[in-house]
């Protein structure tokens, strides 16, 4: 090592620390992160080159420079810990792209680099030895050994004085928090997205604990050897600095972009226009498209009240639900999964035991879809094929997921909207059976959705002709043949502005920045709607009122307003009504009854409760512990209930687990 070279670099390093990290010094910070690109931009080319050649010595030099700068200001000595991040292109470039996980191989072993990855596994925090203190068992001589690689501490130190073996003094050794992450290279950063996923194990020191999200890690690939008899090595990434990367939509806008957004927002029906352009491949389903578009914009975040709307689409096969979900997953920050390939914990988070680089049967956290979609939308296809849906309840309502297992106690953020899609119970809707009887989603989960849409594929000659014509146009457009202005996948002009998918994504991002306040007029409209829907009985609940308020805010944000006005409230009520009419409207009473979403309308619940009490009453006098159906019908008739009502009530009581039928025609309370 050239000491003269280090001494020549020291003055620049101290000056840089005094300016760039003056605030850290004022706040008496002893752990700092140094932006290497900023050093390069400030003219520290030689210092950056030295750090690239000798990462360990370079970081030690930065620590010394910070300590000296700190001493000059505070007149006191400290021992700091410095990490480096944001490597300049001179270090972290390969061709026209930044280095990535796929570039970690023998050629990059031991070299400084920075990569991005999505956390797919995280161990709990462990304690790793940083400095080992040894003592000679013969003469008492002590020796301190720095541990650079925890996998290579397999030596027996010898006393430099008497050549006897030395023993480790654990209490006098130094330790640090240590964690392993397994990262997957994001698809958009792959040289060839068709290649198998690329993974790397990352070892982090001084970590507060990272369990989810997308991260950028600077560090050095190091080798590990599991079988000392075979000269084969695994590569792991020794992290120097790790920070989370915001996957949200771009939030920096030029004045020109903002002007363009405002111009296009003045179009009447801008919500309808952009929602159609978001899914140009699919014909019809206007209310569903509007709801999904507004869902991306989100409501206004207020304290613990969620701003996200949850939507579920229950459809006949072949109407395009999966296409909509996959298209929506292309928006940055959104994520897609098919529930038939995931369990309930697979969508939230799982704690399992796995073999990792730092130990066998280590408890690790595996973040699920809702955590990966934090701040975005989780698109869940084939929703009804998922087992243990109750695991979604906390995530959908409080938008957090608590983990308490295997020594890992943490709360993970799941602040995302849920867009779910599925088919009805028998694959296709049966017109002779009530819609809610064909939905197999548990009532507590279903009630978490703000909007529930059903799409039926019923034959209609004119509509079918339009759909067929639209499909042909889609195929031609993809081939670049016969493109028309109303179906142009690259872009389409609206008020002289080219609008494509990327533009819509940016528009959504800008609309999210708005925080409109509900006007008195809009408040009155929403309140009157709520009171009207609750006339005579509690037909809908405050949960639906909050959903309507969120949607009204989304309409106002989509129109780039600062105030939620009458038209926003009216449109929100219409969208809510479009959703409720199939699943909560009782044709017999002519009223909306939200209990139908819970699997039981008010008119069904009353006789069911009566039949349950009748069964319990007869059982108290029964010797056999069973009740004959004839006795139930007879007692129910005395209270004015028909045989049909009794049969239906018994069926639903069995489904709910309140009673069972161990023998044909004989019942008992469970």
TrEMBL record:
InterPro entries per the UniProt record, alphabetical: MCM, MCM_CS, MCM_dom, MCM_lid, MCM_OB, NA-bd_OB-fold, P-loop_NTPase, WH-like_DNA-bd_sf
E.C. code: 3.6.4.-
GO MF annotation, one: ATP binding
Keyword Hydrolase in annotation: yes
Name of the molecule in the record: Replicative DNA helicase Mcm
Keyword terms: ATP-binding, DNA replication, DNA-binding, Helicase, Hydrolase, Nucleotide-binding
Broadest EC class assigned to this enzyme: hydrolase
Family assignment from sequence similarity: Belongs to the MCM family.
CC annotations in GO: MCM complex
Organism of origin: Methanococcus maripaludis (Methanococcus deltae)
């Amino acid at each position: 090592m050239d000491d003269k070279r280090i001494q020549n670099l020291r003055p620049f390093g101290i000056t840089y620390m005094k300016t760039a990290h003056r605030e850290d010094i004022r706040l008496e910070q002893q752990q700092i992160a140094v932006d290497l690109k900023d050093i390069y931009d400030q003219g520290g080319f030689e210092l950056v080159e030295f750090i690239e050649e000798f990462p360990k010595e370079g970081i030690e030099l930065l620590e010394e420079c910070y300590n000296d700068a700190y001493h000059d200001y505070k007149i006191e000595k400290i021992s700091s810990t410095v990490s480096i991040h944001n490597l300049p292109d001179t270090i972290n470039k390969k061709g026209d792209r930044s280095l990535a996980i796929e570039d970690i191989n023998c050629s990059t072993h031991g070299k400084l680099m920075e990569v991005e990855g999505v956390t797919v596994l995280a161990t709990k925090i462990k304690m790793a030895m940083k400095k080992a203190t040894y003592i000679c068992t013969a003469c008492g001589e002590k020796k301190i050994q720095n541990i650079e690689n925890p996998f290579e501490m397999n030596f027996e130190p010898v006393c430099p004085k008497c050549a006897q073996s030395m023993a480790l003094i654990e209490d006098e050794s130094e330790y640090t928090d240590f964690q392993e992450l397994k990262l997957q290279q994001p698809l958009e950063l792959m040289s060839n997205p068709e290649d198998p996923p690329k993974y790397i194990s990352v070892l982090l020191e001084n970590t507060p604990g990272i369990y989810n999200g997308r991260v950028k890690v600077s560090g050095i690939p190091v080798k590990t050897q599991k079988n000392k008899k075979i000269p084969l090595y695994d590569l792991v990434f020794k992290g120097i600095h790790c920070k989370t990367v915001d996957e949200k939509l771009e939030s920096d806008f030029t004045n020109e972009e903002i002007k363009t957004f405002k111009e296009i927002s003045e179009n009447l029906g801008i919500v309808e226009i952009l929602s159609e352009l978001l899914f140009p491949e699919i014909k019809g389903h206007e209310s569903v498209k509007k709801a999904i578009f507004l869902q991306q914009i989100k409501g206004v975040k207020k304290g613990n009240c969620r701003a996200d709307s949850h939507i579920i689409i229950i459809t006949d096969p072949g109407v395009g639900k999966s296409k909509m979900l996959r298209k929506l997953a292309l928006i940055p920050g959104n994520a897609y999964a098919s529930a038939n390939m995931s369990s309930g914990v697979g969508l939230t988070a799982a704690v399992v035991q796995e073999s990792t680089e730092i130990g066998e049967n280590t408890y690790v956290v595996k973040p699920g879809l809702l955590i990966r979609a934090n701040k975005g939308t989780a698109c869940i296809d084939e929703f009804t094929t998922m087992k243990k849906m109750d695991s979604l309840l906390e995530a959908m309502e409080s938008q957090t997921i608590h983990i308490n297992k295997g020594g890992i106690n943490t709360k993970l953020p799941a602040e995302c909207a849920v867009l779910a899609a599925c088919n009805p119970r028998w694959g296709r809707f049966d017109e002779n059976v009530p819609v809610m009887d064909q939905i197999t989603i548990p009532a507590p989960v279903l009630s978490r959705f703000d909007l529930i849409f059903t799409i039926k594929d019923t034959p209609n000659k004119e509509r079918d002709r339009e759909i067929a014509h639209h499909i042909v146009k889609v195929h031609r457009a993809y081939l670049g043949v016969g493109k028309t202005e109303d179906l142009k996948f690259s872009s389409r002009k609206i008020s002289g502005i080219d609008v494509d998918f990327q533009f819509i994504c940016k528009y959504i991002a800008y609309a999210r920045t708005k925080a409109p306040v509900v006007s008195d007029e809009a408040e009155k409209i929403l309140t009157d709607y709520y009171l009207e829907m609750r006339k005579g009985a509690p037909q809908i609940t405050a949960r639906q009122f909050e959903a309507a308020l969120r949607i009204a805010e989304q309409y106002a944000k989509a129109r780039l307003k600062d105030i939620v006005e009458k038209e926003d409230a009216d449109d929100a009520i219409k969208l809510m009504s479009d959703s409720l009419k199939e699943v909560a409207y009782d044709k017999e009473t002519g009223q909306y009854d939200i209990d139908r979403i819970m699997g039981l309308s008010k008119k069904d619940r009353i006789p069911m409760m009566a039949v349950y009490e009748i069964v319990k009453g007869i059982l108290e006098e029964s010797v056999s512990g069973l009740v004959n159906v004839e006795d139930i019908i007879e007692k129910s008739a005395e209270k004015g209930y028909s045989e049909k009502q009794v049969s239906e009530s018994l069926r639903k009581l069995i489904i709910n687990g309140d009673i069972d039928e161990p023998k044909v025609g004989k019942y008992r309370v469970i």
